[in-house]
Amino acid sequence: MPRAVLALNGGSSSIKFALTEIDDATAPHRVVAGKIEEIGTAPHLIARDGDGLLIGERRWSRDEEPSYETLLDTLLAWIENHLGGDTLAAVGHRVVHGGRDFTGPVRIDPRVLDALARLTPLAPMHQPHNLAPIRAISALRPELPQVACFDTAFHHTQPAIATRFALPRSYEAEGVRRYGFHGLSYEYIAERLKEIAPALARGRVIVAHLGNGASLCAMEDGRSVDTTMGFTALDGLMMGTRCGTIDAGVLLYMQQQKNLTVAQVEQTLYKESGLLGVSGLSSDMRDLLASSDPRAKEAIDLFVYRIARETAALAGSLGGLDGFVFTAGIGERAAEIRAAICERLRWLGIVPDPEANFRHADLISAQESRVEIRVIPTDEEVTIHRHTVDSLEK
After folding, report:
1. φ, ψ of residue 115 in degrees (nearest 5)
2. What is the set of domains in the chain, with CATH numbers?
3. pLDDT at 85 over 70
4. Residue 1 has pLDDT above 50, yes or no
5. What residues are annotated to the active site?
6. Do residues 17 and 35 lie in contact, with contact meaning Cβ atoms separated by under 8 Å?
């Protein structure tokens, strides 16, 4: 009888999920994917089959105010009913921060959960929302195995020099260092490259994960060498609402001269900056590309500039560049952004084929390009599935 693994990605206002069957005779097969959105206002459960057809839906009114446990209980009951004779074997979770100690997936128990909760100051906007589904399922289905899969784990292969800040050594001892994020996405791309371009996978590649959250990762032979995000997911590239790398003196100015509290600074940096802050219009790249407002163009230009600037730095970390991969929402779908980034990086040998780029081909580099340019859709849930199954077999 087939078994199934549920992959969960808990956020501040939504929970994304994917259900994948385990069958020793065949490759893993995704049977359901969906999300619970608008948590905290009017939650809406949507489930689709492997072909994208709607197969399940549930709405809660604003007056009902269902708890996290109620939402997860509804989801689990629907999944168990949908599986029929299949068995839900485990739940795998995306957890943004694993700190210094969690360098790979781990079965969750009370000790592990407490340790992950202590990492909340390192990812205050993400960690609590990643842990909430774990707590809810522990209460609802205490016998159901759960596995934590970390966005930071993939980057533990980086050399020490790439992870250090130039701060007093006492901070390093406390865990203040560069960690890197989006690791589940980068791990998926690294594995996918081995399948579709094995020679390139062994080389020096920069992967651009460009979505509402954005970062770059420099890989050599499929291993992380350097990345743009650091101590928190606030660092590096300009993002939808996050500023990315910023002079620490600006933060002092905000507190000393503008009299902002720590909470107000946090709100500004995480929620009011990036594409939204510069444009004053939207954090959604689609809105900005469709706008004729000059502020939208300025935000787009800065987004592209920062990506090109950081790409040059990561090429230095690698000592050269063989491949460049676009992934995530903007990277996979916004041909205009890909073209603009490549134009700024032409000096590095990154030359796209315009026709291939705008028809969203998998391989978009021109024949004369010294760097192979690819577009690879990411799938973090596949990585979570693989790690969860491996953990069950240990």
Report:
1. -65, -40
2. 3-150 (3.30.420.40), 198-380 (3.30.420.40)
3. no
4. no
5. 151
6. yes
